[in-house]
Design brief:
- 38% of the residues lie in helices and 14% in strands.
- An eight-stranded parallel sheet has the order 2-1-3-8-7-4-5-6, sandwiched between helices.
- The protein is an alpha/beta fold.
- Helix 8 packs parallel to helix 9.
- Strand 7, helix 8 and strand 8 form a beta-alpha-beta unit.
């Protein structure tokens, strides 16, 4: 098992300015700056990912879709991203995927690898969906399997929205276990995960954490993982503009600590990605993501 605790991964290309858009794509640079202001993390080396290569993306995505994407063409394959389509946005996603690939590679040396981007869990092999052009976790898992066919990957997706892209991509792969706990009556159209937990609006901390603990105990019995990919969405937050879950900032930190403890108990590495977050006060989204870093970075 890796002896080092936490690696942080970031590229300035993650950051985008999308004025007026509900997706706060400038959060990435604010999170980076938050890390650099913190007395504990200011001196840490933050590792720089490379862009994902075409061959990596083709492990998950169809050539037809990638052709549309890299031609910046609005087609039936790209239009449901609900994002603009231009060079800087596509570059942001290719670096984001590269960050999660790097996290998987670092899992040989670090217990926790934190991509300060990624978590694009709505992207399908042949189309974009829900602010997601490329599926970073799926690509990273498929790339891992090229060099290590014995990878048993567990996806823990605690974003507000179901990780439908990953559930679809891995539906027939018995070496990838998909777990998604999300608000049930929201976007997207649901796919079937190995374990889905649909939460009712107004779910609060205690009920949420109890459901998570029960789910992790079930997974422990059902699946023998040797790596975890944690999609740590900030959007179950009680003041998120797109959701109706009522999880406090403290509850979300406890959630993150619970996932960390689960990984430590199993003695397996964990790759963490950000995913969504749409708090009415943008600073809350940044602070929730930063709290996830501290949950995995604390001694």
């Amino acid at each position: 098992m890796a002896s080092n605790a936490l690696a942080l991964i970031y590229h300035s290309s993650y950051n985008l300015e999308l004025p007026g858009h509900v997706f706060p794509a400038h959060k990435y640079s604010h999170l980076y700056n938050r890390v650099k202001r913190d007395p504990v993390y200011a001196s840490w080396d933050i590792l720089l990912p490379k862009k994902a290569e075409d061959a990596d993306l083709e492990l998950v995505h169809t050539k037809e879709y990638l052709d549309d994407l890299f031609s910046y063409e609005h087609t039936s394959r790209t239009m449901y991203s609900e994002l603009p389509l231009n060079r800087s946005i596509v570059e942001s996603f290719t670096y984001g995927v590269g960050g999660t690939i790097m996290g998987a590679e670092l899992s040989k040396k670090f217990q926790f690898a934190f991509n300060m981007g990624g978590g694009y869990h709505h992207s399908f092999p042949d189309r974009a969906e829900g602010f997601c052009y490329l599926n970073d976790v799926a690509v990273a898992i498929r790339k891992q399997k090229e060099t290590d066919p014995n990878v048993n990957a567990l996806i823990i997706d605690l974003d507000l929205h179901q990780g439908n892209g990953n559930s679809y991509i891995f539906q027939y792969d018995d070496k990838v276990y998909t777990f998604s706990m999300h608000q049930g009556n929201l976007y997207p159209k649901k796919e079937v995960s190995n374990l889905d937990v649909d939460l009712e609006p107004n779910t609060k901390d205690d009920e949420y954490l109890t459901a998570l603990e029960k789910s992790l105990n079930q997974i422990r019995k059902d699946f023998d993982s040797n790596i975890i990919y944690y999609v740590a969405g900030a959007d179950p937050y009680e003041d998120d503009s797109l959701g109706e879950l009522k999880i406090s900032m403290k509850g979300l930190k406890e959630r993150d600590l619970m996932v960390r403890k689960f990984a430590e108990t199993l003695n397996v590495p964990c790759v963490v990605t950000l995913a969504g977050g749409y708090a009415r006060d943008f600073r809350d989204t940044v602070e929730i993501h930063f709290n996830t870093i501290t949950a995995f970075g604390e001694k």
